[in-house]
Amino acid sequence: MTLPAADTVVTYPDGDLASTGTVLHVEPLADGRSAVILDRTAFHPVDPVWPDQPADTGTLTVDGRAVTVVGAVVGATDGTTLHVGDAPVRTGTDGWSFVVCHLVEEATGVEPGAAASVEVDAETRRALSTGHTACHLASLALDEALAGLWTKEVPLDGRGQPAFDQLAIASSRILPDGSVDEYRIGKSLRKKGFTAAELPAALAAVTDAANARLDGWAQAGAALAISIERDGDGLGERRRWRAELPDGVVEIPCGGTHLRSLADVATIRVELAYDAEAASLTMRTSAVRVSG
Ligand SMILES: [Zn+2]
After folding, report:
1. Which of 107, 120, 162, 192 has the CB geometry, 3.0–4.6 Å to 58, for a possible disulfide?
2. Which phi and psi (to 5°) does residue 271 adopt?
3. pLDDT tens per residue across span 147-199
4. What's the CA-to-centroid distance between 53 and ligand 1, angstroms?
5. pTM surpassing 0.90?
6. Distance 135 CA to ligand 1 centre (A)
């Protein structure tokens, strides 16, 4: 079997929930499942290098037979080996092709060359897109709310605020309608000028300031337009989340899926918890969607 020589064309950045394509390769896996690779797909895979947003759920249909996709991961190939979910290189590295691996329990009858279609579960996608959009907005609101705790000049975020999120992020997990971000507030951040000692006393005011900013953005609703900008349609191309905030346009590198605006979002709130001993700040973000 020949391995794909090009990236999978991905349509999920535009919000697509269904796509048609051709089976390029079927890789049997050690656990008995198979990884099915198509030339194009609407299925969002988890990227093991930065696994913030979980994979879509849904089905793959080949020759009229629908199979459940039990997982989807980024695969990488240099033409000789296919690494399924354990690529030795970052997504986008030159000389490699990056492919969406649709994981299925049973791939009998799924052959290269066959026409295939995929359908993504719309509600799961919507909930994860809401969570991911809320996560990015919360990170910007947090940067601004923490601005007073910096004593030195540091890189700024897209709104001109000290880029706490970018400098301190340890992990980010997108949940249905929310997210959990873990920040490391260690020696290196303090050396950069972050006054961690003042954080416990400031935490309530910081939380209120972030939530007030998020309230304003939620009220902007449909006027707060969001899109994914990209240089090409391959999985390995760089993509950026772009939001038209009331005070200007902001872009953040992002491989996930997002809402198109805040029209269907009623509120976004954050809760902050600081553990000085563990040198970690946890931000839990939750969005409430407009019902109906
Ligand atoms: Zn993102």
Report:
1. 120
2. -125, 135
3. 999 999 999 999 999 999 999 999 999 999 999 999 999 999 999 999 999 99
4. 8
5. yes
6. 8
